[in-house]
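Attaching the record inline, Q. Sequence:
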Amino acid sequence: MIKGWSKLMILVVPGLLLLALLACARAAPTATPTRAPAAAPTATPTRVVTPTPAVRVPTGTLNLGLIGFGSDIWLVSHSSGEEKQAMWAVMADRLLDYDLATGSKLVNDTGLAESWRLDVTGGSPTVTFKLRKGIPFHKGYGELTSEDLKFTLETIVVPDAVNPYANSLRGIVGDKVQYVETPDPYTVVIKPTKPVAGMEAVFGPRGALYAVISKKAWDAAGGREGFRNNPVGTGSFEFVEEARNQRLTFKAQKTHWRQVPGFETLIIQNVPEEATRIAMIRSGQLDIAAMSARFKNEVAAASGTRVVTTPFGGEVFVIFGGQFLPSRETYGAKPPYNSPWVGLDEKAKLVRKAMNLSMDREVIISKILFGEGRKVGVPHLFDVPGAPWYNANWKPYPYDPAQAKKDLAQAGYPNGFPIKASLLSLPYGPSTADIMEAVAGSWEKELGLKVERQLFEYRPVWRQKLADRSHSGWAYAFTQPQYQEPYLYMQCCFQSKGVVVHWEFEWVDQKFAEIEKAFDPDLRFKLTREVGDWLYDNYISMPMASLNALWAVGPRIAQGWGPTPGITTVNRLEYLPPPTR
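Structure, as predicted:
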């Protein structure tokens, strides 16, 4: 029985970022490029930024259609979702950024820091950032300085922050930024008392620092409540207004240190229904729209429209809820949940194994994702062939329903058991709910499970369940964009100190503590591999697939444009040339 709002389609769908699970119709080639993220360097040389050609003059309006905006709170401390982070990328520059070609390594070309250095010599590692000079904030709020960076960090480590990396950042800069020094207007030095390996990544776009904001603008707005509705950044586009849950409007900067946009106005519209987004692309009402793979052939065949692919856009997996520390009241093996899959005993492991073996991932990828995915053996961003932590023995679990039935019977559940399935609506994963529906159907068919389905939007309800650790008794599919290293993702969502948590284990906490102290990359990669082996051997989650992200674009979007690899949300809009029509 399906409960909840009725707009979400759950038929045979595949999706943009969701990769995984159904069995449907049309077969297609499976070609998904993969990449191996580079190890985070301990230092990067300063690079010379090529100035934007002075001849570019922004013209026209760029219309973008997305599935949702997330919250309407414009605070870095409370911008917890990929969709809100994407909005910050429009109007703010990052301190550190990933290279545009691969999206796998931190560089200085496009970040506010012209150089940065992690010094791990001696007993007190430090991180030093040198800011670019002469970068103005929007709306006349003066030049970016080291005090603005320190202030931004201060706003993120507040007690009520929901930024997924707020807790990690507190450990680095202090809960009152007491470990941050500003020796001059363009230098920030951080001297944590408890440094962690790879801590520079926390300051990147996949960490806590989506933007550096203006302290003057904050004060002029009367503080947090005023700034949250009128954000000020340094990006290529300036925030103009928000019509709540309908559209966001931005205007181009006529001069910019990094890139002057080609379009004068950017309007981002909230269009939840995918069929509506595609129709608006075909009619010219939208220029770019998020799309799932099931519309790929239609968009590619239509006159004037095409599909833009972002390689290695993320990963989809299924979480078995309630796998928390046994000391928690919501631990799934306790009453009233009594979830058969929770625990590290042999019976619970057999249940998780059976649930994994009952799903035919190959059919899903070839006939639902239209080739826009690759099976993975270990979930949560570990399975990156060629990466220094990768283990070639992480073979995808086979589809073996007969063995799955035997394992479930051996665990004591020959007739199955009840389970609730959350069908999530994710703005950066249009088909996540359909993937969970496919998994639920397979569990019913192959294992005899009694699945109760319910539709949820990720915000506000389901995300709060992750924060409260209150999703015992549930299973759910989730689509996650890439991180430079898997342990950076674990910081946020797979440890007992995490802000939003999918699962937590004491063994993983202990291993994570070792990884944080591993300033030697080889040791860090070895420990990361051990965690991947443990996930694989214990069937902790259901690995599904890595995926490409897809975008439907209209005729005004120049050939050659595409978002940065490894990022599921739209980006690089400022690099689009002026419209040709």
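The chain has a mean pLDDT of 86. The longest helix spans residues 521-538.

More tomorrow.
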